[in-house]
Amino acid sequence: MTEPAARPDLSREHLRAADEAELGEQAGGGAVYLITGIQAAGKSTVAQALAERLPRSAHVRGDTYRRSVVSGSAEMSPDPSPEALAQLRLRHRLAAQVADGYAAEGFTAVLQDTVLGELLPYTIEQIRTRPLYVVVLAPRPEAIERREAGRGKKAYGTFTVADLDKVLHAETPRLGLWLDSSDLTVDQTVDEILARAGANSV
Fold first, then answer.
1. Mapping DSSP to helix (H, G, I), strand (E, B) and coil, where does residue 94 land?
2. Are 176 and 133 in contact, with CB atoms under 8 Å apart?
3. DSSP 3-state assignment of 142?
4. Whole-angstrom Cα distance, residue 90 to residue 93?
5. Span 196-202, mean pLDDT?
6. What is the pLDDT of residues 5-18, one digit of tens each?
7. Chain-centroid distance, C-alpha 198
8. Strands (E) located in 62-147
9. Cα angle: 194, vertex 34, 130; to 5 degrees
């Protein structure tokens, strides 16, 4: 008889998060992770890697609902118009509904988007599923600038890294797990999320 594969060394928080997600699935629902942070913080890469670690999961990309607008789009800026803010709230609301839809079918939805300031508690309110694990990726500004310089696409237009880092730290409520991922690999970041998010569910 073959020996079972060795299990990873899981912390108590990791086991609690996994148990809560399993209980939600047994009740007919799943769970939701909300991964946020400023542009180039690694949200998409980390969300995909996290989803790949989970047995039944979906990666919900909030930016999809911005790009879905064909005409009449109002882009965000350091001084946004009321229409731009309304479209941003719509984007977060639609993403929350999709995440809830996946969770209702027993999936763990990993929703990632730039959700800052008062829009973080707003988006949390839009997500009906529990357990809900909120993760704020908060690498240092110099780490963001290095990542941005090495990317094939540019995340920053009218904003600067300093602009959004200020919004993150000065205007965003301290909800969920805040993680300085500056010196972590993607896998290490996912390890930290799985180990600690359960103790920071909202």
1. helix
2. yes
3. helix
4. 5
5. 91
6. 444 455 445 544 55
7. 14
8. 108-112, 132-137
9. 80
